[in-house]
Design brief:
This protein has about 800 residues and is an alpha/beta fold. α11 (about 280-290) links the parallel β12 and β13 (about 305-310). α3 packs across α9 and α21 (about 605-615) crosses α22. Bound molecules: NADPH dihydro-nicotinamide-adenine-dinucleotide phosphate (NDP). NADPH dihydro-nicotinamide-adenine-dinucleotide phosphate (NDP) binds near residues 228, 229, 243 and 251. NADPH dihydro-nicotinamide-adenine-dinucleotide phosphate binds near residues 165, 168, 193 and 194.
């Protein structure tokens, strides 16, 4: 073809990126061992596996296939290194991280080519997106390493961290995991995905070049059933950070339940891409290309559900089909390619199956007229119309270049459709009316909201899910808390039997009522507290009551015995009170102050109740009431001060990191400090706009039931706090398994904590448990503060670009 003819057709010429340097490196290694203590070691089994190029199915190199014995060695190396690394001064850790960032930049082109070869993604994306973001993550977290002592006082690293990453962004996921972990002084054992281990192995060389102390970063390749499983179950691993499918995330939640391991999960998604009729449709088309054809659609936050306002739907879909016709699928190392190869034949098969299922269910499929390369794993960009909200291709994460389109008429309908998924990772909103876009953003249940843009990421802005998309954030300051714990926990108070009388206090103090009652010996008027649901005191469904004994072993009263049905009613009432989330922080603060005011009026009565239940002396009981009043004041104060932040990522725009309530939360109160323990859990959750179902201590429930009248007289809207008394573990299990409870805090026994973590996996609700360890609730460091506030919110990042 001559130049004239080229001008006629405007066909793309080939623009191949040279791979010879990378190929030479692969050849030189032939096969890779495991990276443990900065050394390359043979796997114990002597087994190796192949990594292949998805674009042509050819083998690239052999990598070690580790077994659990190798994981033991790697964890031991990380543990050994933790001793010194956790004590390494902030500035020294920062220097190492800076060195890693620099090395990554110096090897940027090499890493881009290697990533394309191993994963099949286009060189355009690895070069312009993946690798620059990897460097940015290490730079950004070098900054947090430098500032840790000043910015996170009272926190320390958790220890040895097991990290399991997927194949869709191999080096980027490594950076998201390793950078915050080592910045905070942890050491790491990382398992790359089976299909894409190579950039992690190149990174291991970079670790050597940067001179990181041996054992801080260990990289163990191998099968999930061997390496992944062994890491998850390893008793000397303190935290698991996982990115991958919701199913595997759920099984990890179950296997780590009760172990005390910290856990962060970044799981699947089915993110909506919402287009209003006033949006610039040409920009929208390019947005859709970035949303669903970026990385072949193998993106957890891919905008895979196009929701378009009915009156512009046909116009947009026509423009989109025209654009799809022009997309180019082919050799990932060709710089003019839009869509590369699918990571593996089995992933391709998965996509083909789901597409066939979509067609069988009656959806209309549209694909461009051209054909994909016949060699390697390729799939064309695909558009489905005529789908219903319940069809499988609308609900299931396809993880491929497949878009489903639906229409809506009103903004409310758009929100309803957008939230009609079990996931909640991200959403894009397209409209030229910024008021409308910013009104919709808080209504979408997702961790990242992109306004007139999509799939933008930055280390400064945390990323993570709502609902079954997992919990925990990666990036931003909030991401650091996944890798630290409060220092006081290191000298934890051991699990002990409840309701112990503090030594030498209160033995001789009077617990009886006033002298008036004693004088006339009047029989008390029976007062059996019912349950508190939807702002009303209601009888328990069971019709049974439970006796409550005082510290002296004598009957003190009775409370209702709540059951599954009562919990269900309470959850329903809590959902009905969801407007609480949109009450202004000022308003919520006023109500917390009002609760304190009404409690203060009755402090003597509440102190007496504490004395009766715990056997403590009057002075101590009053101390608990006063601490409760102070706690209510603290959370009233924080209500309008624990706010989000504004990030300035490197783009023309801002990211608004908003603290949003999680929704309906269950709280299971501790036995120690019947009033303070109860209020310490309820107050932060409602301060942040959640509604609550609370289970008071079963041995000392009367301080909580005495609060009914306080709540009733303090303008607290009905249903914001619901209280169900009864057997703790049974009620906690119902809450843990309830699909409509979004988070659960549990402060009871170690066994109960395990049960809560295990049972919560059904809808991946966030949990916070004490593993049977007591806290000193009087201590403001242990009993209140940001730890509680952070567990009461989820961070939503709203990306708002600006400029014409
Ligand atoms: P997985 O969730 O199976 O794999 C992710 C990582 O976890 C890999 O390193 C994998 O190892 C490891 N792993 C798998 N099973 C276990 C286990 N039981 N214990 C510990 N580690 C384990 O994802 P797949 O790669 O199988 O992809 C399947 C589907 O998951 C995709 O089609 C997509 O829908 C979704 N997915 C979502 C991602 C996201 O970012 N949210 C990323 C990747 C996939 P190995 O590679 O050796 O199997």
């Amino acid at each position: 073809m001559n130049v004239m003819e080229l001008f006629e057709t405007m066909e793309y010429g080939p623009a191949p990126e040279a791979a010879n340097t990378v190929q030479a490196w692969l050849k030189e290694h032939e096969r890779f061992g495991l990276f443990i203590e900065n050394q390359w070691v043979e796997p114990a089994s002597g087994q190796y596996m192949e990594s292949t190029n998805p674009a042509n199915g050819k083998a690239l190199v052999q990598v070690a296939s580790a077994s659990s014995a190798d994981v033991d060695v790697a964890v031991a190396a990380a543990r050994k290194a933790f001793k010194a690394w956790s004590k390494t001064p902030d500035h020294v850790r920062a220097r190492y991280m800076y060195a890693l960032a620099r090395q990554i930049q110096k090897h940027a082109r090499f890493l881009s080519v290697l990533e394309s070869l191993d994963n099949g993604k286009s060189i355009r994306e690895t070069r312009d997106i993946d690798i620059p973001l990897v460097a940015r993550h290490f730079y950004y977290h070098a900054g947090w390493a430098q500032l840790m002592g000043r910015e996170l006082p009272g926190y320390e690293p958790v220890g040895v961290v097991g990290q399991i990453i997927p194949w869709n962004f191999p080096l980027l996921m490594l950076a998201w995991k390793i950078a915050p972990a080592i910045a905070m002084g942890n050491t790491v054992v990382l398992k790359p995905a089976r299909y894409t281990p190579l950039t992690a192995l190149k990174f291991a060389e970079i670790v050597q070049e940067a001179g990181l102390p041996a054992g801080v970063i260990n990289i163990v390749t191998g099968e999930a059933s061997q390496v992944g499983d062994a890491l998850v179950k390893h008793p000397d691993v303190n935290k698991i950070a996982f990115t991958g499918s919701t199913e595997v995330g759920r099984s990890i939640r179950r296997s780590t339940a009760g172990s005390g391991k910290k856990l962060s999960l970044e799981l699947g998604g089915k993110s909506p891409f919402i287009v209003f009729d006033d949006a610039d449709l040409d920009s929208v088309v390019e947005g859709v290309v970035d949303a669903i054809w970026f990385n072949q659609g193998q993106v957890c936050c891919a905008g895979s559900r196009l929701l378009v306002q009915e009156n512009v739907a046909e116009r947009l879909l026509n423009k989109l089909r025209a654009r799809m016709e022009k997309l180019r699928v082919g050799d990932p190392l060709d710089k003019g390619i839009d869509i590369g190869a699918i990571v593996s034949p089995s992933q391709l098969q998965e996509i083909e199956c789901l597409v066939a299922q979509g067609e069988a269910e009656g959806a209309e499929k549209w694909q461009p007229s051209w054909a994909c390369p016949s060699e390697g794993s390729f799939f064309p960009p695909t558009l489905f119309t005529n789908v219903s909200p319940a069809s499988s291709i609308v609900q299931v994460e396809i993880f491929g270049p497949v878009l489903v389109a639906m229409t809506f008429r009103t903004p409310a309908e758009a929100v309803q459709l957008a939230n009609n998924t079990r996931y909640g990772l991200a959403a894009s909103i397209w409209s030229d009316n910024i008021n409308l876009a910013l009104d919709i953003a808080p209504k979408i249940q997702a961790g990242s909201i992109w306004i007139n843009c999509t799939n933008v990421f930055d280390a400064s802005s945390g990323f993570g899910g709502y609902r079954e998309s997992g919990y925990g954030r990666e990036g931003g300051k909030e991401g650091l808390y996944e890798y630290v714990h409060p220092s006081w926990e290191t000298s934890q108070i051991p699990e002990k039997s409840q309701r112990t009388r503090p030594q030498g206090v209160g033995e001789n103090e009077e617990v009886a009522n006033t002298s008036e009652e004693a004088e006339f010996a009047l029989p008390a008027i029976d007062r059996t507290p019912k349950l508190f649901i939807g702002g009303k005191q209601v009888r328990p469904d069971s019709g049974y009551s439970l006796g409550v004994k005082g510290a002296d072993g004598k009957p003190l009263g009775e409370v209702g015995e709540g059951n599954r049905k009562d919990v269900r009613n309470a959850v329903e009432a809590a959902h009905a009170a969801s407007k609480w989330a949109s009450a202004t922080p000022h308003n919520r603060a006023q109500i917390l102050y009002y609760i304190a005011e009404n409690l203060a009026v009755r402090e003597g009565e509440f102190a007496r109740r504490i004395m009766q239940q715990t056997g403590r002396g009057r002075k101590e009981a009053l101390q608990e009431v006063h601490a409760t009043l102070s706690r209510l004041f603290s959370y009233a104060a924080w209500t309008d001060k624990f706010e989000g932040v504004i990030h300035r990522p490197p783009m023309r725009g801002v990211t608004l990191a908003m603290h949003e309530p999680i929704g309906v939360m269950g709280v299971v109160a501790p036995d120690e400090y019947p009033l303070l323990g109860f209020i310490s859990l309820v107050a932060p959750t409602i301060a942040m706009g959640n509604t609550v179902v609370a289970i008071p201590s079963p041995t000392a429930p009367l301080s909580a039931t005495d609060c009914y009248q306080i709540f009733e007289t303090s303008d607290l809207p009905a249903g914001v706090v619901n209280i169900v008394t009864g057997e703790r573990e049974g009620l906690a299990k119902v809450l843990a398994e309830h699909e409509d409870v979004d988070a659960l805090w549990y402060f009871g026994s170690a066994r109960g904590a395990k049960m809560v973590e295990e049972s919560s996996a059904s809808n991946m609700k966030r949990t916070w448990v004490n593993y049977g360890r007591q806290r000193d609730w009087l201590d403001p460091i242990q009993g209140e503060g940001e730890e509680f506030l952070r567990a009461s919110v989820q961070v939503k990042n709203i990306w708002v670009p600006y400029g014409e």
